[in-house]
Amino acid sequence: MYSGKKNKNKPLLALVDHFARDLADCFHRPIKVDRDGTERSFFLCTLGMKGDWPALTKIGQLRRHHLRDTWSTNTGVGICHRCLGGQEGHSWHDVSYENMLAMRRDVPVPWTSTPGIISNLPVSSKHVADFFKIDLFHTFHKGVFADAAANAIVTFYDFDLLKLKSLDQYMHVLYEDARAFCAGKNYELHMCKLTTQQLGLTRSTDYPAGSWFKGADTTVLCKFMQHKLESIIPELSHDENYSFNVAYLSQIVQLLGFANTFMHVCYNSGLWLTVRQRDLMVKNLVNFLKTWAILAQSAFN
Length: 301
Description:
With 301 residues, this protein is mainly alpha-helical. It is built from nine helices and two strands; from the N terminus they run H-E-E-H-H-H-H-H-H-H-H. Helices cover 50% and strands 3% of the residues.
């Protein structure tokens, strides 16, 4: 369906155009439904599109998207279809209030030609880019939360908490522990083993980045590592050689706890969040980011 680079996704875009026209027709012409002998008319109003980042990027023909991050320069096309993050003067890693505000001023549309799904649907001209919703799954489960789990796993090894010098042996033992943990909690772990590739480690100096295939494993590994650290910290508290490490590891437990609460609410809420659920997700995500920054600074120091 995607047809790759050769046809530039033309079959997919043609299909989406037809789909958008059908949705537009449902907006202007009601769908008749007979219920208990009474005919009612329903109009469909398409509020937006959500899905995996790669699909949204193709369907929206986005120029600014998640794969445009820059590492060797301060100038790029942009990493976000809704702001100027990653462009000159708008560092994507600067999350200060002033920069976050500046990145949202005078933002041009993220495409060179209007995608069919936008042109065929009744969408506010002031919020066309907002039609494509943020992909929470790839941002968190395949993104920062996966990295949090990977960093916790590598930190556990760096601090020699299992007393295993071989990294391969450590990952084998930790994986078996995770499997036993999942069996006891009735969680499903999809990975068959834990590898350096899954942790983003091609050499010892690499930054740990979770790259396992199933995003659902992020949920399990975050819960497992929180449990693993919580069970070992009391033992370390009596060892003066671990005084700094205990504080550092306790912050990792907090970090994983914030991620786990966020994911729990995300997975167990309905289609629409209640005010309480929204506030709980925002609170835990903000605390996650603050704790991440503290841990990053501590590791750097």
